[in-house]
Design brief:
Length: about 425
């Protein structure tokens, strides 16, 4: 076990990778640049900080996101366990109190006898027996340049975070509490708009002024899965109303009718003092966010505790660079994990961290790689990011569309998804690592 092992980056992927290596018996250094340096999107010193939504998506096993988390639990996931302990009501989704979640993961990592957390900026690719780069999509410029030189350049896309308001500032006379389709408890505050209100709001949104990106790449290649609300609005008058502000599954108890459009607010913390504007990722100027979003009747006096921000995400061209064990083809002791590999989403990133950590430990022991089959969600994501036949490589989150079809054709989508999930779980029932 006298090996030098370094994991670069203390996000979800880095924490999972370091934990798996440490659990295998190897002392590991987890190097995190906060608080020496903060990325444009990070705010506190904790590991595993959630910088966008506080939702980890669906809980149901019969959903792609639910299956992913179930698989991760079977592999001993630190982040999924922490999420279950810090969850807040969110209907069918697993949402967390982000501060408690990050604090719990930080405590878990700091208390492991085989993990040493160092607060330093890594500017070179470390020289060690095994290295895991989990620096995240907001990797620092210095290290990013070294990775880019080694891998032939980064691909970039933009991500955006939604604003957060205080619960006391929401006008509940202009809102109602209900989950869509009555699924789950009353976990969402719904802010309805009639046709006239929505049209005024939409006109203001498409004409609002966006923030300067300054040091960011000016190409503004926006990822479809986290589309800023103002860009979505520019695509048509009804695009937002059929997207994050869709009123389907909701009926305003004051009128007895379905609203023309609805903004849903989701609990941001366990004490329910803060609410996230669901689907309202944005990079409007802060003053414009206050002006435009306050046009929604329930938010006319809203107090914003965080405005939406825009940040660049970078990822390598994994299909031509990575093996299925997450190691670099040209450098077998160098592993990559998290969003920098081209997986998209909190849990997808953490899952990649688990697999990179397991494989780094197996490499150090001289054991064969650990590669999950494509009938599992983790295995399917791995297959996607390492598929050399992909022409235009873009980030990918968990989706049943990635899994090979069942032998028996099932027409009902819900039943088909449940069967796909059952097939994966049956494999994990037999798995020995």
């Amino acid at each position: 076990m006298n090996k030098k092992v370094i994991v670069v980056g203390g996000g979800l992927a880095g924490c999972e990778a370091a934990y798996r290596i440490a659990e295998a018996g190897f002392p590991v250094e987890l190097a995190e640049m906060k608080p020496v340096r903060f990325s444009p999107a990070h705010e506190n010193e904790n590991l595993a900080e959630l910088v966008c939504s506080n939702s980890l998506k669906a809980k149901r096993l019969g959903s792609a996101a639910g299956l992913l988390k179930a698989e991760m639990l079977r592999l001993g996931s630190v982040t999924v366990e922490a999420a279950l302990q810090t969850k807040v009501p969110a209907g069918g989704a697993l949402a967390v109190d982000r501060e408690k979640f990050a604090a719990l993961v930080t405590t878990k990592i700091n208390s492991h006898p085989n993990i040493t957390v160092t607060r330093r900026e890594v500017t070179e690719i470390p020289d060690a027996d095994a290295v895991v780069i989990a620096a995240g999509p907001l990797v620092s410029d210095a290290l990013g340049e070294k990775i880019s030189a080694l891998t032939g350049g980064f691909l970039n896309f933009y991500d955006a975070a939604a604003p957060i308001v205080t619960v006391d500032s929401i006008d509940m006379d202009a809102a109602f509490v209900k989950s869509r389709y009555d699924r789950g408890g009353d976990d969402y505050i719904n802010c309805p708009l009639n046709k006239e209100e929505y049209e005024r709001f939409h006109a203001a949104l498409v004409s609002a002024e966006t923030a300067e990106l300054h040091s960011f790449d000016k190409r503004k290649k926006v990822y479809e899965g986290c589309m800023p609300i103002e860009i979505m609005a520019a695509r048509g008058a009804d695009t937002v109303r059929f997207g994050p502000m869709k009123p389907v599954g909701l009926r305003d108890p004051r009128t007895g009718h379905r609203p023309w459009a609805v903004l849903q607010l989701r609990k941001e913390n366990e004490s329910a003092t803060m609410y996230n504007l669901l689907g309202f990722q944005t990079y409007l100027k802060f003053g414009e966010q206050k002006r435009v979003f306050s046009m929604i009747p329930a938010l006319k006096d809203a107090e914003f505790v965080r405005y939406g921000v825009m940040h660049r995400n970078s990822f390598i061209h994994a299909p031509t660079l990575l093996k299925k064990n997450y190691s670099l083809i040209q450098k077998e002791n160098l592993f990559f994990a998290g969003q920098i590999t081209g997986v998209e989403g909190y849990m997808e990133s953490a899952g990649a961290g688990i697999l990179a950590g397991i494989n780094a430990a197996r490499y150090l022991r001289g054991e064969p790689p650990f590669v999950l089959p494509e009938i599992t969600m983790l295995g399917a994501l791995t297959a996607y990011i390492t598929d050399g036949a992909i022409k235009d490589f873009q980030p990918m989150g968990a989706s049943f569309g990635l899994l090979p079809p069942l032998e028996e054709k099932i027409r009902d989508k819900k039943q088909r998804y449940e069967a796909l999930a059952a097939r994966s779980m049956a494999f994990f029932d037999t798995l020995k690592i």
